[in-house]
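Re: your question from the hallway

Yes, I did run it. Sequences:
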Amino acid sequence: MIPELGHFALILALLVALIQGVLPLIGAARGSLPWIALAKPAARAQFLLIATSFGCLTYAFIANDFSVAFVAEHSNSQLPLAYRIGAVWGGHEGSLLLWMLMLTGWGAAVSLFSCHLPATMTARVLAVLGLVSVGLLLFILFTSNPFERILPGAAEGRDLNPMLQDPGLVVHPPMLYMGYVGFSVAFAFAIAALISGQLDAAWARWSRPWTLAAWVFLTLGIAMGSYWAYYVLGWGGWWFWDPVENASFMPWLVGTALLHSLAVTEKRGCFKNWTVLLAIAAFSLSLLGTFLVRSGVLTSVHAFATDPRRGIFILVLLAIVIGGSLILFAWRAPKVGLGGAFGLISRESLLLMNNVLLVVAAGSVLLGTLYPLLLDAMGLGKLSVGPPYFNTVFVPIMALLLFLMALGPIARWKHASLADMAKRLRVVFVVAVVAAIATPFAMGPWSPGVALGLLMAYWLIASIVANVIDRSRHTDGGLTGQPRSWYAMHLAHLGIAIFVMGVTLVKGYEVEKDVRMEPDDTVAVGGYSFRFVGVSERLGPNYRAQRGEVELSKDGKVLRLLHPEKRTFFSSAMPMTEAAIDTGFLRDVYVSLGEPIDERAWSVRVYYKPFVDWIWSGCVLMAMGGVVALSDRRYRLKQAAKANLAIEGARA
Amino acid sequence: MNRFLIPLGIFILLVVFLAIGLNRDPREVPSPLVGKPAPIFDLPQLHSPNLKFSPVEMRGKVWLLNVWASWCVSCRQEQPLLVELAESKLLPIYGLDYKDQRADALKWLRDFGDPYTLSISDSDGRVGIDYGVYGVPETYLIDKAGVIRYKQIGPFTREILDSKILPMVKELQKL
Amino acid sequence: MTNPAKNQVLSASIRVNPRLLLLFVFSAFVSAASLAKEAVPMAADEQVEQRLISISEEMRCLVCQNETLAGSHAELAEDLRREIREQIKQGKTNEDIMSYMVSRYGDFIRYRPPLKATTLLLWFGPGLALLLGIAVLLAYLRRRNARLSDVALTPEEQSKVDLLLQAGIGQNKAQP
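Structure:
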């Protein structure tokens, strides 16, 4: 009964989405107020319907309803409750429903927080979101219905993939989808602007907080995914340039470019066409990513069960949505005005350069990800493009970007002087070089690669410090009186510097030892000593585990016990390694069990990873920067209303 | 107007490639050995381990080398087809028993049929590596000069046999 | 597990000097303690193993196609790693080993795409795109500045600007 309710809710949602997608658009074009007014209630109704549908699916999982095919595929009655809920998005059909939940959620949010926007703009934005919903709902209803029944129902489910039975599953996909799908709002704003012809600084100001919010979630979502891979896979890697990882990273890169471009459009009224194109591109990459992961076109560890029929459907959807947007762009963009002038060297041009670098980076990732497909499609053979390629291509571009990041914040709008910037950055440069050369000595063998990476990070940090000191001294506000967006910028940039430091130091100085351990054996890594106590059996809710006990000491003093595990789930023969990690501010110590060698001995891997948590801390700092930017005065609704009044007065 | 059409142009190109890609299997690894001489080896025979076999003995004949194993489930699918092919006496089929135990292999042939003129034991898989074997079953069509002409990845189907392999065999036998 | 030392001690205590007994027990403890040792590396030869890891990390496992040859547990991966290990011991260079693999499994096994006619776009694309992007940017900026010129404000516009600025400063002062 409940699954049928869920299915019915989906059908209703499709009808509402059709109304939401079509009528307000026509209404805005004709000036018909009743039809314009339909947009907001439609968006909210759609969200409620999808939420109901999602709730029904979740209920089916919690109640172990194995007559629903999707539940039977991905769940099991012995699965702990949290994972039964997480399993809702542990497979293709359910994750699409999550996609819809996020899409309609964002739509409902837009309908709630848009009182200061002109009604026609809101109507168009919501209409575009409605049309995207229509496409996805058709896809779900025709090819990927999560409520399909199997009769008779299965006695027991096939269980959730053991790799997914982890807290990461509960957090990572929702966070990621919030971000990924959230770019649909920026997209909708861009399309609405193109349709209405109202493409100006005001549009940028409205669009920006939505883009920021989506970007924050995407940053956290990607970081979460990376951290999850790190502790679940058992060998300490955290990024593989896997097609699905790339699929989430490309929208992030373009989204970052978009954020910076929006800042300029808002302030100076220029780059409008470019900003619109970036907004279209960011969401297009999200859609492309959705296609890549579900169509079987690329091999990936993340790929959902594939079906060429689904692939064709998404491809057609992609073609219509993106193709349509680009046609609209080609048609309307030439009519858009140019905005303010600025010099060859200025903050505007530096930000444009930032955009060029980020877009080229995103393009390179896209090229590398799709190249095997391109060659195969042309019959030119089969090859693999893996981490060696991406690292070689991506790092230099990022290095250039990092260099520029010190210049951008101190460049003046409209016209900046190279000589002036050079003078202000002289000390910064010297400090950075000295620190970069000195630090590796403190860590171990000196390496030019580490020094270079650190140079980039220190360059950025020192320039931030210099900027902060300079600004506090020379403005009325002092250190605490600056606009929030200024703090946000530095916080986010600092996050990047911390990230770079983490990556550089861990790559340069991590140590791994793969040893045979019998009870009481010890191994030393990175100044820490590990004593293998033994392995015991333990029974989990749906698995049997071999639980190792390893004593961690430093300088003879016992710090703690670590318990790496090897779990064999009842439902599948696949053994899962659960590493034991001692997390620290300056280092992680990581132990994972290998295989039993004989009755007493096991192969054990121990890792010393200095500064590895700085990788994800950097990402968190970036996200915090985004949140602080969101809380800026400009976006607070009460403030916006006051400002509007003042402008009204001036106009009179 | 023209430069604003560039993004659309790039996108259309992308969609075309993706559409073609939908029909491809990204997991299939084509062999670089097609068109190259079949690697030489000298291995004991399965039924008579004191006797050896080398592909050199097959010069002047068109033949199939079928990689199989008793632990391979998909091999059972194609075995009836191979037996049928062997009975038609069109061309000799030799088996490469890959990473297998002799007793298991002999039993498997008794259970599922033995189309092979003879089978060769590749117990440590080294010859398999030389032939670029990455899964079982795989089959190589080798011509009179000892050059690999075609590699079948995965089990045969009647369709593949009729449409690809048999015509090729007839062509090669004429030479 | 039986403990022969204990039995001997029990029977020895009837006849043997207590000091000898103590010595015996003591040495038993010492030897037990020295059983706890520094763990032996899994690999027989560290140098070879390091090279094996760095070479096999550049290769894809053909069975579990999403793992490197270094990390995969598949049987073929273990066979191939064994093969690489032997070749390293024979003194083959990294290039030799890579071309050995590629001649059998094709370019698909390499994670670093080789530089060939078909991969020119792949390897040089990003660099070219960057150069192109910078060139287009510069050209665009130059063209843009040629098209725009700043126009001075009329007196009415100026007074409107002043009004707006006043309203803005008022808001600023209201902030704590």
